Amino acid sequence: MANGLLFQVLPEREEKARVAIASNESFGGWTKTFTDPRLCAAIVDRLTYGGNIIETGTESYHLALTQARVEQHIAG
User: Count of H helices and E strands in the chain?
Assistant: First the structure.
């Protein structure tokens, strides 16, 4: 299971260097990717312990660009 592997890799990586994660999804939505709620909570716990969370509050540039292209294609 890839999610379990990620949970194993994070602590090993943290011992050597910092870890940066970028996501367009709030932590509450991470259960869409990490479908095991306990594993999801553990991953979020590992990532946020002693870390800094920066919320930009901006929409995804790539998502907006893709949506614009789709709308342009539909319009003709």
Answer: 3, 0
